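Team,

Forwarding the record for the chain on the shared tracking sheet. I've put the sequence and predicted structure together so nobody has to dig through attachments.
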Amino acid sequence: MAANPIPGNARRGRARRLRRNLPPGIASRPSVILHAVILAAAFVAAPAFAQTNDPNLTQKQLDCLNRTTSAGGCDKDGGAKNGAGMSGPATSGAVLLPALIVDLFPNSPAPTAPQTPAPSNGTSSSNGSNNTPPPAPAPSGPVTVPQGLNLAEPPRAIAGEFVPDEVLVTVDGGAGVVQQIANSFGLQVRSQRQSRLLGATLVRFGITDGRPVGVVLAQLAADGRTRRREPNHIYTLQQAAGIANYAFDRIALDAKQASGENVRIAVIDTGIDDTNPALAGVIAGQYDAMPNVPIEKRDHGTSVDGLIAGVGPLEGMAPGARIYHARAFEGGKSTMDVILSALDWAAEQNVRIINMSFVGPKNDLLGTACRNARAMGMVLVAAAGNNGPKAPYGYPAAFDGVIAVTATDAKDGLMPQANRGAYVFISAPGVEMVAPSGAGSDVVTGTSFAAAIVSGAIANLIHAAPDRSADDIEKALAATAKDLGPKGRDNDFGYGLLDIKAAGAAKE
């Protein structure tokens, strides 16, 4: 049956009312009215982008949400088809996002809105140069959003915690091009610098009018001068609640022969207490990627550095190694732009190993930086995560070319809080170990510290064979690991427990 038509007089009256409600000069342009109606209809028809704390989403579902899975494997709402990988009922009419990843410090308060770290124009106390240009000044007046911005792609469903009024964009061009893009899209330039690992200008744009991050990313995709566009994701250190260090014995490393002499290792973490005796002569250089944020916590970074290369009674896995420490976390948290700044600094120090004892959402900018660092010959080691068996994959550990480390105890049992998944590469001691801390020493637990053990162990391999490549080291670790759990590589232990003696003897 045909719908009842609207009488002509009523139609004319409605049109007059619409025109009266439009700004001056607009009511007389029918094409603008039609364009506005079409846009309004498009937004009404678009699905809601709702967050969820459901920890049961699989990696396939996350990829569907991020539109990285082929259309054949995803349904129209962004989920896996036919409930593939689902462990709970689907949410109708909404795109689901995974649970936010939070830090797991002992007795930590409930998560609050994170403090946005300062722009990543950090300072260095090493001999390396820092030629980063200062960020462009913010506009003096209010930022006006241009009218008629079109979406170049559907608004993105963003997994994980992120700064709600910022986006990170790599741009072809200098400060002039950056400001033109800001003007075109009604954004504020909060920082910009040339990134070595990304091979482009990295810009942190501020959103001043309340537009959702996913919408702004979709709008920016229309500008060919932008290469990559990502949220400014938030990452968290991986320390769990916590006697002699049993790691030497469990990974078959002779403490009397252990040495990482002159091997250069970058650590991206909290600030450190460089007056701790365990770090005497260990720190070759420091860099502060968030200089405008006061340093309050030093324990985590001190423990990680000490487990890698500590001296004295709390000797690390690789005594003699040279640590280049980048402070990029405060209160257990950091953002993508700050971490990228620290990674670029690490690359400039000509390090062989980068230790990343933190976890956050998948971010293409971080993935690109890791891929390029690996191509430059660096071995990348990262914590698999402490968020439990049903947690989403943890990044950067889950990127290809990054050695994802899970934590085991003195009896080779898996830490219960550890993340699980096909990305887990190897196991190492990380439960109830004594390590240096800001105040002296402490008992620590977490995949953060297991990653530090692996970084120190790899430094021994490089010390013994300086020309050994990152690819060869990774293959040797996989081939010689002590199998734990189900036969072969599994989602809990990866290839198994690190055996550094066997890895050192493995032939290329």
